[in-house]
Amino acid sequence: MHPYHKTTLLSINNYYYRRGGAEFVFLEQNRLFNEIGWDIVPFAMRHKDNLSSEWSEYFIDTIEFGEEYLFMEKLIKVPKVIYSFEAREKLSRLLDKIKPDICHAHNIYHHISPSIFSILKQRDIPTVLTLHDLKLACPAYKMLSHDGICERCNNGTLLNVIKHKCVKDSRVLSAIVYLESVVNRSLKSYVNNVNKFVVPSKFYLEKFVEWGFNRKQFIHIPNFIDIHKYQPDFSAGNYFVYFGRLGHEKGLTTLLKAAGNTQVPLVIVGTGHEEESLQKLAQELGVRVDFLGFQSGEKLHAAIRSARAVVLPSEWYENAPISVMEAYALGVPVIGADIGGIPELIQEDITGIRFASGSVESLGQALQRMSNLPDSRIEEMGRAARNWVESEYTADLFRERLLELYQSLGVSVST
Asked: What are phi and psi of 337, to 5 degrees?
């Protein structure tokens, strides 16, 4: 009999399929605890792409925030976005059926909503929330506005969200998100009902404290990677690669300008709304760049593995990008912007190089420096990167850290 076989984890996230970074962590966490004999009970939103679940009858109705709805349908959905009574009612019914030892939630904003947390507290279920973004402090998630990094709402008015149309450049959507934040702050939906906030980067933890949150309620548990799915070869390539979404906050304009100035070969993997303008800019600058579009699995791994270094030129507060760990797991060093949680994932001159975010000159110098290093030095950095992931960021370590947290909240994890 497995020592953990009776423990039940109530695992909550808006989506129950692989959609983004938060869903990756949510689903992998479910798998990791299932592996040690835990019962996993998901609570999510109904969606055509969902994985199958025996508990799906308790899932809430689909809400796709920002999708085209008839006017009356939009009016019906707005209150759910702010505070979902449907989610409370369905979770209550689910909790009449099961007795979870712990609840761990991930992204619940605008769909399930924080309305569920007081129900969990009333039933004495210890609750953990992983903060994959800055939503707790910034109503628009990113502390990013039309003019770059934005912290106007810190010690200021949340009305800035509407004024600057922070959500999808829409005053209406921004107003809904403003109302949602005001209501849940006044109800203290998060701070009064969540036992512990898990933060994947130290930077985010410090940022929340800076914005007035209680440090004792937060714990840093880094993200992880399943190293067995990544096979490195450590040979130094000759081009630099960016992989991920092609959005304006990712710093790709800066990367193209720096690559143009230094004439290093570049590969860009991914899609996004900036794709066309980036291709046009690359042509104007005469950059040696290949746009490979969306890639996954072994094709993506091959593109990364063959690079000299992965470049992460972000110009917003990244949390703890898994792309850095993926590069390391494949034995490739990283050139990363000194912003958000990126610097804490780069050991200078050991696993990569940092540069000043948004600076074409600084990034150009980093690219040139990495180009000029002997291949043997690049291979050495790749091996150091892989070793660091194996010692600090494995799935097993992630599970152990969560088990310690759950135990600290009074959960018995063995019989």
From this structure: -70, 145
Contact 395, 31 (CB under 8 A): no
Answer for the pair 26, 106: CB distance below 8 angstroms, yes or no: yes
Neighbours of 235 (CB within 10 A): 12
Any idea what the CATH number is for the domain that residue 101 is in? 3.40.50.2000
Question: Taking a C-beta distance cutoff of 8 angstroms, is the pair 108, 136 a contact?
Answer: no
Based on the domain organization, do 170 and 316 belong to the same domain?
no
How do 148-149 and 144-145 pair as beta strands? antiparallel
Q: How far apart are CA 9 and CA 227, in angstroms?
A: 25
Tell me, yes or no, whether 45 lies in a domain: yes
**Rounded distance, CA 413 to CA 329, Å?**
30
Contact 309, 380 (CB under 8 A): no
Strand-pair category, 334-337 with 309-312: parallel
Can you tell me the distance from the alpha carbon of 357 to that of 352, in angstroms, rounded to the nearest whole number? Answer: 15
Summarize pLDDT for 100-145 with one digit per residue, the tens: 999 999 999 888 999 999 999 999 999 999 999 999 999 988 999 9
Task: Please write the tens of the pLDDT for every residue from 246-260.
Answer: 999 999 999 999 999
Q: Model pTM greater than 0.85?
A: yes
Report d(CA 202, CA 225) in Å as an integer: 18
Helix, strand or coil for residue 157? coil
Q: Where are the alpha helices (DSSP H) in 243-296?
A: 252-262, 275-285
Domain containing 369 equals 227-392
Which residue do the tokens 């906030």 mark? Answer: 197
